[in-house]
Task: structure prediction
Amino acid sequence: MHNQKLRPLDRRQLAELISVSRGILAADLVIKNGTVINVYTGELHKADVAIKGKHIASVGGNYLVGESTQVINARGMYICPGYIEPHAHPFQTYNPVTLSSKVLSLGTTTLICDNLFFFMVTDEERLLALWQELNALPVKLLWSVRLDPQTHARERAARFATRRIKRLLDTPLARQVGELTDWPSLLAGDEQMLENIILAGKLGKRVEGHAPGASSLTLNALAAGGVSACHESITGDEAINRLRLGMYVTLRHSSLRPDLPTLLKDILASGVGLWRAMITTDGLTPPSMVNGFTDYLLRLTMEAGVPPVEAYRLATINPATYYRLDDELGGVAPGKLADILLLEDLDKPTPVKVISEGKLVAEKGKTLVRFSTPRWSDYGVVPISGPPKELVENDLVPPAGETAFPVMQLVNPVITRRKDVALPAIDGGLDISGAKRLVYATLLDREGKWACNGILDGFAENLAGMACSSTITGDPLVLGQVPGAMLQATRRLFELGGGLVMVEDGRVIYELELPLGGIMNNDPVDKLIDKCSRFYTLLAERGHKHYDALYTILFLSATHLPEIRLSPSGILLVKEKVVLVPSRAIA
Result:
């Protein structure tokens, strides 16, 4: 097993850090006259902070100012640890680099990221190389390692083989396995799942669950199986149940599940403590990032009645402790990495200055340092190609049948219910023209070999055609009521190498390029906020009643959610794992 320190000191660096702490050697940076938010004791106290290299040398102790020492006067300000996002999905149209650049300016200096998309498009050796390159960024990008694909994948066993998981886990950049969407396999004693969970324990890694609505009996079994945290609490009682069983609870306020104020009020009313709680944005889509990131969650936390110092613990020392990083991160103390925020006031968590590993990297919402972008193609993250020339309109429409068709009824942004509907035929396909709320929904193999043709109820009332390559399976999803417009949108999507396209009256009315694996863009997050918000507006004008449509599109092929989904195998009843309508080959 490798050294699990993120930033280990060599002998010279350690000796110099000690010398600075003793006032023998000049500090590189001194923060004077500020008030430290002490997440260890719960106190607020005046103290100067001296920094050598990437680490804090002293807090309220001796220090020497030399000719090259940078001094920051923090009079009237609060000195806070950098924020830790414990559950990030760095590919919601943005990519890890553009996301990091944005959130650093808002005070988040560490993210623990989902690896699923990257693991599905590249091998573990190139993925490790990508992690190492991203490790040079001013934001620390650490990783969760998935043990299941979150979709009905044929190649699952080979892709998540223990030898592959071990290569990824045996590095300090990987902090846990999860999120465990296929926890039923663990409880059923699936051999590969058990081996991977045991491996994580041997390597000292955490196991994060994904168990929305789980009963106390199920949670007991998951905890016995090694699951150490869960971010899927929807009510305060669900969060408390997890805490009572020794789990950490990650309280979520995402664009899809904005639950944090309710969760906190319920927990506070119960009298249960928050020392094993964290807060997460859980993969915000760009339109919701207009409010901020972890800083916004901290404002909500304090507004819900959590005292300020306790609130800051949820985004600093608590996640650091959970991920066994508290010897380096999570607090302002000697020997810790100098990830430090300067706040104007205790109840204003958006920082005016951000210091990452001893360097001033952001000020007043602007980053001051360069973020290098990897050459993504080196890591297998490339534009999608196609489409096959022979693709025709009928490939995007379910063929006519003799029985009622299993329609996917959208009851909220991501949950579907089965509704069998008898529909007439037209030109060999099912005709939805007489049903205002229905749209065709086809998951199209990115290589053009097969199509899973479905029908969706409740997505839009007047949608000619659209296509999006940002899906859980990585295969384009084509939606609409006019097959010709759907085909035009699909062809344009492939011309872009991946993207999101809307077509109406024979012309493209919206497009967003997603050339990085069909799921990510290279634009700054602020630009994506505007672009994705425009898409939401256009969709709402065409009768879309739900919120967070990007997640709706992403999850229509995600077979960890109820009840009926599109998959490479066909239209799938999730719980029963029964294919109702098989996918068909494209001629």
